[in-house]
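thought: fold this chain, then report.
action: predict
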Amino acid sequence: MPYDERDEDTGKFTSTYPHQEFLDSLESLSGQASTQEIADEVGCAYRTAYQKLIELEEDDKITSKKVANARLWILSSG
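observation:
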């Protein structure tokens, strides 16, 4: 399981999976996909993908809706 890495110049931790990777993968998946599809595209665990997608939704970068027992993530327009 990947961990955050420390930036040698600033000493701050940087995310192993930046938000942009999730936005890019969602775009490559036609703008909407399940958590598992995005996790597979990025190459991370389901839990990591879910947490990052929640953060992106809180930042209004994406939206989601519940479909059966899954969550469908949708790239926000604009």
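thought: worth noting. The longest strand covers residues 62-67.
final: tokens above.
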